[in-house]
Design brief:
By secondary structure, this protein is of the alpha/beta class. The protein has helices at 67-78, 93-108, 138-149, 154-157, 160-178, 205-209, 233-249; strands at residues 19-24, 45-49, 86-91, 115-119, 192-197, 219-224. The chain has a six-stranded parallel β-sheet, with helices on both faces. The chain is globular, with a radius of gyration of 17 Å.
Length: 250
């Protein structure tokens, strides 16, 4: 396919692609964090990190503030790339985007991923905190994000220049998450595998298990050492094993 899109700038594969793995970022995240995954994935997988507006090479574009409009636009941009089998991964905010894109594809394209992988996020039908974070003043906003997710590196927190760039992206992404409203629909017809760090205080065991309600197929959950941003090595081994299993059966 010759078509290009700014939403997929780092597509990469080691050989003949039989499956695409779309990867959605956490709040404030970009696409480059997924580049290192290529070395760990099976050779038939084409890695497709999704780059949202407002970050990295799309820094000059305005980030989204509403969940529904973001999903609608990313669907329009990414749907041409589901011409071969595909799986979807998302971490934290990305887990919600991955889930709702899969539901939208089921509803409007009669298509489903071969697997949905979600990480660091409670099941989508469970209510979040009633207090909104995105309108808070900068210092309170940063303190709350640090308390809940412990995800902003110290070198960023100590750099006014870097925080000046990162804060508007984080605030917009949190606004996207806080604008999300779950609507009842049929469960997905693909396996769902859930990952989490055992020390992640933003999500509980029961909130992770609740993802099981959203699939008619297999469900699995894996908890690894670490917090909200636990090391990805063991998780990638699990993702690779699932995709190799799919490839063997097809």
């Amino acid at each position: 396919m010759n078509r290009t899109t700014s939403w997929l700038q780092f597509r990469s594969a080691k050989g003949t692609s039989r499956l695409r793995l779309f990867c959605f970022p956490h709040a404030g995240g970009g696409a480059t964090a997924y580049r290192s995954w290529l070395a760990e994935l099976p050779p038939f997988v084409e890695l497709c990190p999704v780059l949202l507006p407002g970050r990295e090479t799309r820094l000059s574009e305005s980030p989204y503030l509403q969940f529904d409009s973001l999903v609608e636009d990313l669907d329009r941009e990414l749907r041409p790339w589901i011409d071969i089998p595909y799986a979807i991964f998302g971490h934290s905010m990305g887990a919600l985007l991955a889930f709702e894109w899969a539901r939208r594809l089921k509803r409007y394209a009669s298509s489903q991923p071969v697997w949905l992988f979600v990480s660091g996020r409670r099941a989508p039908d469970l209510p979040g905190d009633s207090a909104l974070l995105h309108p808070l003043p900068d210092r309170e906003f940063i303190n709350e994000l640090t308390r809940v997710y412990n995800g902003i590196p110290q070198e960023l927190l100590q750099s006014d220049e870097l925080m000046e760039v990162l804060l508007p992206i984080l605030r917009a992404d949190i606004a996207v998450v806080e604008s999300y409203r779950f609507l009842e629909d049929e469960p997905l017809n693909c396996p769902i595998t859930v990952f989490s760090g055992i020390e992640d205080s933003s999500v509980s065991w029961d909130q992770l298990i609740a993802w099981k309600r959203h699939t008619k197929r297999r469900f699995a959950m894996h908890v690894f050492p670490g917090g909200h941003f636990f090391p990805h090595g063991p998780m990638l081994q699990s993702v690779s094993a699932n995709l190799e299993e799919w490839d063997h059966l097809h």
